[in-house]
Amino acid sequence: MSPSPAPPAGSRVLVRMAKWRDRPHWSFAAVALGSDVHGDWLGLPAGTSMTRPGASYVAPTDQVVLVPAAAPDAERAWVTTFHGEGGPLQAYVDITTPPVWDGTTLHAVDLDLDVLRGLTGRVWVDDEDEFAEHRVTLGYPPELCELAVASCARVRAIVEAGHAPYDGSARAWLARL
After folding, report:
1. pLDDT 10s digits, 23-51
2. Can you point out the beta strands (E) in 20-90?
3. Are 40 and 8 in contact (CB under 8 A)?
4. Where are the alpha helices (DSSP H) in the chain?
5. CA–CA distance, 143 with 131 (Å, rounded to integer)
6. What is the C-alpha separation between 60 and 107, in angstroms, rounded?
7. In angstroms, rounded to a whole number, what is the distance separating the alpha carbons of residues 125 and 118?
8. Helix (H, G, I), strand (E, B) or coil at 44
9. Are 83 and 48 in contact (CB under 8 A)?
10. pLDDT digits over 6-27, tens only?
């Protein structure tokens, strides 16, 4: 699959997350909202259904997803979901392989680690146990583990410091939705 640019604003898109070795994970439809210096913004209105094998989730509030802008892989191994007012979190960052557009479908491999910012502003890393287990049971290569750990530490520092795009930048995109 050769990478392509993000679809134009207003396009319907599909987000397909996988687990290592191309195992299906979360999948959901969204609308392309546009792009800025941080990357491509996707909108998910409240009520959007997200599915994965054995589970489903319905977004309780509007959400926007940020796909990182072009940069070296080490700086873009993540995908962030910002929750609208009333959501369970402010931000949920999936540590992933660098996301790739293929037409109107976004692909990334979820590498288990997540950086979360709660409603009080507290930041923490989730699923470290799952990452440790999958390193062994799924045979993550050393370079993939290094990418995931480095990306997680980098993103956590940015989220904790409240630097863009974790500085309220998502509110304007939520308003567009």
Report:
1. 999 999 999 999 999 999 999 999 999 99
2. 23-36, 39-44, 49-52, 55-58, 63-68, 78-83
3. no
4. 128-137, 142-161, 170-176
5. 14
6. 24
7. 11
8. strand
9. no
10. 999 999 999 999 999 999 999 9
Closest C-alpha to 98, from 127, 66, 68, 132: 68
Secondary structure (DSSP) of 119-143: TTS-EEEE-HHHHHHHHHHTT--HH
Query: For position 74, what pLDDT does the model report?
Result: 87
Q: Give the pLDDT score at 2.
A: 43
Phi and psi at residue 90, to the nearest 5°: -85, -45
The DSSP symbol for 4 reads B
Q: What SS3 state is found at 170? A: helix
Give the Cα separation of 13 and 6 in Å (integer).
Answer: 9
Return d(Cα 41, Cα 31) in angstroms, integer. Answer: 9
